Amino acid sequence: MTEDTLRKLELGPLTLQASDLHLFAFDRALHPELFRHFAAYHVEQARYRADIWVTGLSHVVTVTAGPRSFTELLGRESELLPTRGVVSRFRLKGERDLEKRTPDGWGYMVSTQVETMDEALYKSVHFDLLRHAERRGWFYAYEAWSEGELVPFTYIDHEARDSEFHVHAFHAYPHERTLVKTQSIIELPPA
Predict the structure, then answer these.
(1) What is d(CA 28, CA 81) in angstroms, rounded to the nearest whole number?
(2) pLDDT, tens digit (0-9, with 9 covering 90-100), for 150-172
(3) CA–CA gap between residue 107 and residue 187 (Å, rounded)
(4) SS3 sequence of 10-34
(5) Rounded to an integer, what distance in angstroms lies between the CA atom of residue 40 and that of residue 184?
(6) Please, which residues bridge with residue 139 across strands?
(7) CB 24 within 8 A of CB 75
């Protein structure tokens, strides 16, 4: 068997659809063993650290300041996910904005968009994001899940400020001609 065939067998077929996605916010960290990590990134700031996991056309972002953490999860609903510490949860569909503040002082703002396009527009947006990802951010292509010239991918860009962490995430589903976008700000609790 070729290396590509072995990788496709290891990953299995792409079963996640954009319509399967939910956005969850937790006032705690989540255990890494709950997720398959395709890529992981770490950002250190004076007051906090951020861990970003690419989890298969989805992501987990955890910001930790001292003993407290806040987590954004974009992924499918699962009975394995904890129920303790859920600040918010909703299915992604169309456009949605959310703003929350936790009792211990975390601030969270997110804007989500699920956009299905015609083939020509999707192709143009897909290749524009690929070019942008070459210059900035973190990019992971799911080559084993590709069908044709367009490869499913996750592209995450971030901005680390003194007391807040900004995340722009794009998840491309070419088989659906759909792009899932999230823009999040996680604000640290007062020191």
Answers:
(1) 12
(2) 999 999 999 999 999 999 999 99
(3) 5
(4) HHCCCCCCHHHEEEEEECCCCCHHH
(5) 18
(6) 155
(7) yes
Q: Please name which of 167, 162, 158, 151 lies closest in space to residue 74, comparing C-alpha atoms.
A: 167
Greatest C-alpha distance within the chain: 56
Alpha carbon distance 173, 90 (integer Å) = 20
Q: pLDDT tens for residues 46-101?
A: 999 999 999 989 999 999 999 999 999 999 998 889 999 999 999 999 999 999 99
Q: State how far the Cα of 99 lies from the Cα of 16, in Å rounded to an integer.
A: 27
Q: Name the DSSP class of 151.
A: P
Please report, as a single letter, which amino acid is at residue 172.
Answer: A
| Strand residue runs (E) in the chain | 21-26, 39-44, 49-54, 59-65, 68-76, 86-91, 95-101, 107-116, 138-141, 153-160, 164-173, 178-187
By C-alpha distance, which of 8, 11, 23, 50 is closest to 171? 23
Structural tokens at position 6:
């072995």
